[in-house]
Amino acid sequence: MKTRLRREHFLDLRPFSASPAFARLWIGSTLAGLGGQLTIVAVMLHVYELTQDTFAVSMIAVAGLVPMVLAGLYGGMLADAFDRKTVALIAASVTWVSTAVLAGLAWGHLETVWWLYLLSVVNAAANSIVMATKSAITPRLLPRDLLPAAAALNGITVGVMVMAGPALAGILVAVAGYQWTYTIDVVLMLSLFLGLFTLPSIRPEGVIVKPGLESLKDGWTFLRRATNIRLQYLLDITAMTFGQPLALFPAIGALLLGGGPITTGVLTAAFAAGAFLSSLFSGPIGRVRHHGIGIQRSIQVYGLAILAFGAVLLAAALGVFAPADVGEQSANLALIAVAFVFLAVAGAADNVSAIYRSTMMQAAVPDAIRGRLQGIFVVVVAGGPRVGALYAGTLATLTTLWFPPLIGGLVIVTLVWLLVRANPRFRDYDALHPEP
């Protein structure tokens, strides 16, 4: 009995045995995502090296926002009109080519800030289509009762990606340079094609609407009625807008905590470490029925953790535990460790929220419209941090590095409480009777 109880607290691996196709896609996505994180962090460091400007780093995310939104929406329409396997393969090919071009420019020493921006935009747009399509595919590969377990496994993917990727990126950039970092991503991404090629044909079920204005209007009409789905979007946008300090990490590593690129990688990896651990012990999550309450509480914990991270940065600015001169060669190890813990808590809370939000999306939305709703979901998930990068970069430029996370965490806790309190239907959401 004790052994069984211990097992029920750990990650549920049944989706792998239930669907070998899901298992292959998961492995390919994990390896490709790891490579993608190498490039994301390397581009941030590359832009900061070329400009020495935190605002320029934040603009990487902002530049890709509109193309990513448009691609996510259109990609969702494509996923509801054509074979989802084909749509994902074409979009993944665009991502692979743009990364290969980035590596080629780096090897030829031809890279500029504008090239880094342009290729990041292409990557963001293509990836949003891949993500939307893969999310719409998952419910067709697994029974509904295994969707929370699949979402938790995707949390493991995020954990591996963002925990190992940024740390490796910091080390690779410091030791081998940008050329090798981008090239490794090109190689790792090949694994995604294996996962996609081995999928069966997956055409949408139900009434098919051709991509275009009518398809977009059809999706918007459904979303207007889907109050639970709409509110989870708003809650996630709130968390990511006011609680995403990623764009500040290069400057924090260079100016506040010390350690340079390695500190940037460590702080970024902290989010993933929390996501990984929360997925590893995600067994009880699948037994929770009230996903709305789960989303509310996990996002509020996220906000408190970001607020605490801001307090750590304030302590660093005041000289707490600081070495004689804080810079890239002299890291404030004590505060870096504390910051890592709070960011890990934030990552864990965000992952729990993501499990509930993903399960709600996949269980409550009909297959015929799932691609479009997943497209909007991807825009929210990927677009929120980009708006957050603008918020953090702009506010840090006008004030100081510790202020955006400190005030942002407080805003998250307050706004989430107000939004959920005003929507009792969301609090009453029951996973056994999913309603959008």
From TrEMBL:
<keyword id="KW-1133">Transmembrane helix</keyword>
<dbReference type="InterPro" id="IPR036259">
    <property type="entry name" value="MFS_trans_sf"/>
</dbReference>
<feature type="transmembrane region" description="Helical">
    <location>
        <begin position="376"/>
        <end position="396"/>
    </location>
</feature>
<keyword id="KW-0813">Transport</keyword>
<dbReference type="Pfam" id="PF05977">
    <property type="entry name" value="MFS_3"/>
</dbReference>
<keyword id="KW-1003">Cell membrane</keyword>
<feature type="transmembrane region" description="Helical">
    <location>
        <begin position="233"/>
        <end position="256"/>
    </location>
</feature>
<dbReference type="GO" id="GO:0022857">
    <property type="term" value="F:transmembrane transporter activity"/>
</dbReference>
<feature type="domain" description="Major facilitator superfamily (MFS) profile">
    <location>
        <begin position="184"/>
        <end position="436"/>
    </location>
</feature>
<dbReference type="GO" id="GO:0005886">
    <property type="term" value="C:plasma membrane"/>
</dbReference>
<feature type="transmembrane region" description="Helical">
    <location>
        <begin position="54"/>
        <end position="75"/>
    </location>
</feature>
<keyword id="KW-0472">Membrane</keyword>
<feature type="transmembrane region" description="Helical">
    <location>
        <begin position="87"/>
        <end position="108"/>
    </location>
</feature>
<dbReference type="InterPro" id="IPR020846">
    <property type="entry name" value="MFS_dom"/>
</dbReference>
<feature type="transmembrane region" description="Helical">
    <location>
        <begin position="402"/>
        <end position="420"/>
    </location>
</feature>
<feature type="transmembrane region" description="Helical">
    <location>
        <begin position="149"/>
        <end position="174"/>
    </location>
</feature>
<protein>
    <submittedName>
        <fullName>Enterobactin exporter EntS</fullName>
    </submittedName>
</protein>
<feature type="transmembrane region" description="Helical">
    <location>
        <begin position="262"/>
        <end position="281"/>
    </location>
</feature>
<feature type="transmembrane region" description="Helical">
    <location>
        <begin position="333"/>
        <end position="356"/>
    </location>
</feature>
<feature type="transmembrane region" description="Helical">
    <location>
        <begin position="180"/>
        <end position="199"/>
    </location>
</feature>
<feature type="transmembrane region" description="Helical">
    <location>
        <begin position="21"/>
        <end position="48"/>
    </location>
</feature>
<dbReference type="InterPro" id="IPR010290">
    <property type="entry name" value="TM_effector"/>
</dbReference>
<feature type="transmembrane region" description="Helical">
    <location>
        <begin position="301"/>
        <end position="321"/>
    </location>
</feature>
<keyword id="KW-0812">Transmembrane</keyword>
<feature type="transmembrane region" description="Helical">
    <location>
        <begin position="114"/>
        <end position="137"/>
    </location>
</feature>
